[in-house]
Sequence to fold (730 residues):
Amino acid sequence: MSQPESESPKKKVSFRGRSNVPVANSNAEGEDAPEFEPFGLMPRGPPPLAEFLDIWDVNMLCKPNESNKKEHHTSLFSNPLLVVRRAQEFQIRITFNRAYDPSKDQFLLEFVIGASPQMSKGTYIPVFPDPGRRGLWRGRILDSIDNMVTVGITAAPDSIVGKFRTYVAVLTPYGIRRTRREPKRDVYILFNPWASDDPVFLKDEAERGEYVLEESGIVYHGEASDVSARPWNFGQFEYGVLDACLYVMDRAEMPITNRGDPIKVARKASAAINSKDDDGVLVGNWSGDYSYGVAPTSWTGSVEILITYAATKQPVAYAQCWVYAAVFNTFLRCLGIPARVVTNFYSAHDNDGNLKTDIIVDEEGKVDRVRTKDSIWNYHCWNECYMTRPDLPQGFGGWQAVDSTPQETSDGLYRCGPASVQAIKHGHICYPFDAPFIYAEVNSDVVFYKRDKSGNLEAARVNRSHVGRMVLTKAIGGDQPFELTNQYKFAEDTEEERTVSAKAEGYGMDRPKVNYPEPDVKVEVLAQEVSIGDDFQLDLEFKNHSGEHRTINAFVTGYVVYYTGVTSGEVKYETLKVTLDPWQTERVSVDVHSKDYMSKLVEQSNLHFMVTGRVEEGSQIVSAMRVITLHVPKLSIKVIGDPRVNEETLVSVEFTNPFQFSLDSVHLRMDGPGLMTPKYKHFSVIPPNGPLHWPESFTPRRAGPTKLMVTLDCLALRQVYDQVVVNVKP
Fold:
């Protein structure tokens, strides 16, 4: 799509006739509780309440250096309100008009979320500090000094996640006298990976630090043998992001009562991050025309996207899979669900469940582009989130695959997961949610069919190792990649892999039962690094694994492709005739000129080469594929001086146009967690071999190491980015 989907107002469906109250599905809505709530009929005039406790002050102890945020690992949130995690005690300090006497004074704290709160639904939570009165949340008096009482409150491990309104109330014979609504006393309750009773509990401290607290990350892209690492600012603790994440659930009309279940939250959000069904966060666009929004390659992080969505109440344009995954990652980490972005290289899009991608060649071995409809994404990004799965048999909890990129519908909506990674690996694709689709993304076969003059198709060759070549995520505590391939599948041609395939087929994912002939001649396109604008040689290696002479008539085709595998323009077509002696290996080079591809490039600068052919001695088909990602020039980022907290610091961004043509309408973005709000700069033109210089200032908000990220983007040059580590002194 090239422009945002049209907005149409949703018709409100009435709850009348079905229930006495509507389903609460907005964290932002809710009635203020009355300051005095009488018990039954009252005599005329104000009730005599002077002898009872009067509440002078309620201190939420919400400063970053106070124990609440420190102990709950929420001190990084740029939010003045109290942010705590469930299943762990937090403190509130109450000042009364006189000393508290437990023998005659009774008070309670009330936590309320959404409209029409009810105790039975967990949306109205009364907490009594009396140990004898147990409720959904626990409360106890920690200390009482003069007229100041400190109360400890522990939210239930399955508590609703969101922003609660807080009241302190005193019980009298005449009724309840409570504090008036004060927004500064609202408290955010999050999931708690540090609490063993919480379904998202993650035992390893290093993993919690990476998958919950780490604000910046790496999204891998490119090609399996030439991986590129794109920095991304998740920014889950930046000002306004937490409220934006709650708004995402409100906009999706997710019932408040479901927001304590990480399975339901992850599944609902996988639909709400894309705009296909419910006016979600991001509009997808793979067309190359981003005139009505921001190019997916231009974003530096999630903060600008989420803040814009919450402020405008409109989907943000534009996104592709890595943007969806990165923003979803921010959402999950912000709410306290451990999460990471993963990249699957050569990812199949199997919408019919047959676990194969079909490539059709003619009698000579040349690819039939008209009849070949299937494509394989060079890479595809999704997320994993960590949680128990009480709805599945034991052993299928842990990491769950979720995907917010709108590819196929699931139960009527564009969403995917959460699907147990363990279930995918072991072929238990009968378990919810959407395990068959993800299983196919990493396990499909590439089948080459030979088409004769009558139109008949005959399976000629299969490549079982091309799809799901490698699955990567960022390593804990570093910027290097960590491979997850063995978490999704067993090695090819092992006993375990055959057992899993049989199990998956038993659940309905049937591969065609064909005996594919194994050729004794093989060809490989060798990997290499190529910079954009360079002429280069494509190296092909032919191997004869037989004791006889072999003659191969081969076709080399090269196309500019989108990263989704969809072809754009042809850049190379050449025929070869290679003769091999028994057991011989021969390397052949094919020239590729920049003038043939530069004018046809699309945003990811990918060239897809395919070698197909036929062996004259018999009917064997040979084939090989390789995606070559053209490397783009780098930016230069220099931080001037020693950055200190609350002191202005200068940064300089420099770039030189390496081409013999101008770069027009160049967009730059700069971002960094704890350093600045996202900043933007536009240059109308950069002449050939001309320089670009962008001086900018920022004022760090906190000490410690962090990262500053910059992207450069224009129609003629995408995927230009860099980052620099910034050590901020106190």
Observations:
- The radius of gyration is 30 Å.
- The chain has a mean pLDDT of 90.
- The chain has four domains: 36-190, 205-506, 521-631, 636-728.
